[in-house]
Specification:
Helix content is about 30%, strand content about 15%. The chain is of the alpha/beta class. The protein has 3 domains: about 35 residues, no CATH class; about 150 residues, no CATH class; about 120 residues, no CATH class. The protein has a 12-stranded parallel β-sheet. Helix 11 links the parallel strand 12 and strand 13. The longest helix has 15 residues. It is globular and about 80 Å long.
Length: about 375
């Protein structure tokens, strides 16, 4: 009786609180910003009261983002000797059922390795094989950490992928070159943006079909293990992109490959539609020399988190800047010679009309007489 009395008191207090008076639709809008974090972040809110439970469960958008990350793996004990696969499968099934028929955003950020390898297919089975049509066909974005997948189990996962993903618009693959079992990625006729994170030596790309490349508008290519001549074919495969982001995530103590400038290396990325190029970190000059972009209009240069191996502004060959009209510069550098590097870029861009940069870059340029004589617009961002 005491417990029942306390529950009645709590229910009475909730009904008197201002939040209880909020309309159902407004409560849904309050929860909506959490949609991008996945429904797992709402697990405590589900048990506040029946009204909140009904609001969350009936809001399809809240269940359309499925994230399998370290928190999920730990929560369901998937790395344990006897993982409870049924619980995580029930969670994924609930997300799929409650979000249907909305587009899905699926992220697999935890690598399948160790004792998790044998159960990886079972965990993904709900997404890859259930439903009619299969739930995987609802995917609008797919982020997949392939790295370190056990060779005994990746072939089986690869066979579960359908021949095509009709709705997929965004794809992120990390560590794809480590595995030789994923020979072909499904056809993706609506694919618009691709992010490849490569941190190992790989062969020429074989994962994508030629007919998909012309639809991709933006490519982000991240290198985490030293740049090689083999990186250029990966970029060239998406030859119709309008935006290219090159990011160096190589650890500072990692040795650079020294085969970039060998005479036999002739790979060139012909990017005839490229309009915007963004550089993050220290991209080797020899990689930059292999980019051919005749209509390039905007270049953005940022220091990034990796240890600089050379000045960031020196990695851009002047031949690449001949058609550029806008340059963005965001570098954290106390080098006394930075103004000289700025002069090289600005004076080496004949069609330049405007510059975007930090207040520090603006201060450096304001002190230079050569810059004051130019008719350029500077925007502080």
């Amino acid at each position: 009786m005491d417990n029942l009395h306390k529950r009645n008191q709590l229910s009475s207090l909730l009904q008197q609180s201002p939040i209880w008076l909020l309309p159902f639709e407004l409560l849904r809008e309050i929860f909506s910003p959490l949609a991008t974090q996945g429904p797992f972040q709402l697990r405590h809110a589900l048990f506040v009261c029946r009204r909140w439970y009904n609001v969350i469960v009936s809001h399809k958008k809240l269940w359309s983002t499925i994230i399998i990350d370290e928190e999920i793996v730990d929560r369901f004990g998937l790395y344990s000797i006897s993982p409870d696969i049924s619980r995580v499968r029930a969670y994924i099934r609930a997300c799929l059922d409650r979000s249907a028929p909305l587009p899905l955003d699926f992220t697999l950020s935890e690598p399948f390795e160790g004792s998790f390898g044998p159960c990886c297919c079972s965990v993904l089975d709900e997404l890859l094989t259930s439903g009619e049509p299969r739930h995987i066909q609802r995917c609008r974005s797919l982020s997949w950490f392939i790295g370190y997948i056990h060779d005994d189990f990746m072939p089986e996962v690869a066979t579960l992928l359908p021949p095509s993903l009709e709705r997929l618009e965004y794809l992120f693959l990390k560590g794809y070159a480590d595995n030789r079992s994923l020979n072909r990625f499904p056809q993706c006729p609506r694919l618009k943006e691709v992010h490849l994170f490569n941190y190992s030596d790989g062969l020429s790309p074989k994962y994508f079909l030629d007919r998909d490349h012309t639809h991709v508008e933006k490519l982000t290519y991240t290198r985490g293990g030293g740049w090689t001549d083999l990186d250029i074919p990966y970029i060239q495969w998406f030859h119709a992109i309008r935006t290219l982001v090159l990011e160096d995530a190589t650890p500072g103590d990692y040795l650079e490959y020294d085969d970039l400038d060998e005479p036999g290396n002739t790979n060139i990325a012909h990017l005839h539609c490229l309009e915007t190029l963004k550089l993050i970190g220290s991209i080797p000059l020899e990689i930059m020399k292999r980019l051919h972009a005749p209509i390039l209009r905007r270049v953005e240069i940022a220091t990034g988190d990796s240890a600089p191996k050379s000045h960031a502004l020196d990695t851009v060959p002047l031949v690449l800047l001949q058609s550029v009209t806008e340059v963005g510069i965001s570098i954290c550098d106390s080098d006394d010679e930075t103004p000289q590097h700025l002069q090289r870029i600005i004076c080496g861009t004949p069609l330049l009309t405007s510059i975007f940069g930090t207040s520090r870059i603006g201060e450096l340029l304001a002190e230079e007489g050569w810059f004051r004589g130019l008719r350029l617009v500077y925007h502080c961002v």
